[in-house]
Specification:
By secondary structure, the protein is of the alpha/beta class. The protein has two domains: about 1-145, 3-Layer(aba) Sandwich (Rossmann fold); about 170-295, Riboflavin kinase-like (Elongation Factor Tu (Ef-tu), domain 3, Beta Barrel), CATH 2.40.30. The chain is about 30% helix and about 25% strand. It contains nine helices and 13 strands. The protein has helices at about 15-30, 60-70, 80-85, 90-100, 120-130, 145-155, 160-165, 180-185, 270-290, and strands at about 1-5, 35-40, 75-80, 100-105, 110, 120, 135, 170-175, 190-195, 205-210, 215-225, 235-240, 255-265. Strand 1 (about 1-5), helix 1 and strand 2 form a beta-alpha-beta unit. The chain is elongated and about 70 Å long. The mean pLDDT is about 90.
């Protein structure tokens, strides 16, 4: 048997975290495992007539954060045509059969079934008939939402986004080989692509923190298409670790890079020397940011 939470959990923001915390407490009281269920793809990117969304977090990062916040297991439910047609009762039956759901913990403003026809309050008696207890949690949906976070990120306001996320916005992606121009001017970078469908913050330079092998490294990152050295077809995150040679690092897995503050917009420089001077200046600004924040000292 299990305690189940279900949602898109895009960003796994502070509202989601309150839901996870309430479910984790219930799981501890009852001795059940906590299962977090999410949808792939996001329903708004599947259902006709719905405006699609650019995602804040790829599935692997979402899973990582949910596990770190207390979920015992995370499952991705394929949201397809047949699943979208399930009634609320059929959905509960699915949870009971597939996940041995004993408790369902959900937000007070959640809706279930085809077209979101059944509110979380209306769901309670339906669930009770199936032996499932529904616990309603206030998760502050009016103040905290994935949509508000997307707006902040689209504006490059990393601090405001972090306030709603409860942590810095992060890129979580594999490392790809670049053209190695950064090495020739003294600023080697770790290069990561953005998955299709992900929100890409404004092109520009950011104060960042790279996580690798259980350590965190102050850094400066650029999001963009490298206009000075020839545009690349798709946006790339290029991260230079401050004061450290990373040439010996071997990156076999996805890396997480946190973005704290936008320093400037991306621009095209007239020469590599001008680009080199600007990166040096950006690196100094990033160093000052870390020196002025006690949590990084």
């Amino acid at each position: 048997m299990a305690v189940v939470i279900i949602g898109n959990f895009d960003g796994v923001h502070t509202g989601h975290q309150r839901l996870v915390a309430a479910a984790k407490e219930l799981a501890a009281e009852t001795g059940e495992e906590l299962y977090a269920l999410t949808f792939e793809p996001h329903p708004r990117n599947f259902l006709p007539g719905k405006e699609g969304v650019s995602l804040i977090t790829p599935y692997l990062l979402k899973r990582k954060i949910l596990l770190e916040n207390g979920a015992d297991r995370v499952f991705a439910i394929r949201f397809d045509a047949s699943f979208s047609q399930l009634s609320a009762a059929e959905f509960l039956s699915y949870l009971k059969r597939k996940f041995c759901c004993r408790f369902l913990v959900c937000g007070e403003n959640s809706h279930f079934g085809k077209g979101g026809a059944v509110s979380s309050l209306q769901l309670c008696p339906i669930a009770a008939e199936m032996g499932i207890t529904v616990r309603l949690v206030s998760v502050g949906e009016d103040a905290v939402s994935s949509s508000r976070i997307r707006n902040f990120l689209s504006e490059g306001d990393m601090e405001a986004a972090a306030g709603l996320l409860g942590r810095p916005y992060a890129v979580y992606a594999p490392v790809v080989t670049g053209n190695r121009i950064g090495r020739t001017i003294g600023f080697p970078t770790v290069n990561q692509p953005f998955d299709p469908g992900l929100l890409v913050p404004p092109f520009g330079v950011y104060v960042s923190l790279l996580h690798f092998a259980d350590r965190s490294y102050p850094a400066v990152s650029n999001i963009g298409v490298k206009p000075t050295v020839g545009n690349c077809p798709d946006p790339l995150l290029e991260t230079h670790v401050l004061g450290m040679d990373i040439s010996g690092f071997v990156f076999r897995e996805n890396l997480q890079v946190d973005l704290f503050r936008m320093l400037r917009r991306e621009k095209k420089f007239s020469s590599l020397e001008e680009l080199k001077a600007q990166i040096a200046f950006d690196s100094e600004l990033a160093q000052k940011y870390f020196y002025s924040n006690e949590c990084f000292s």
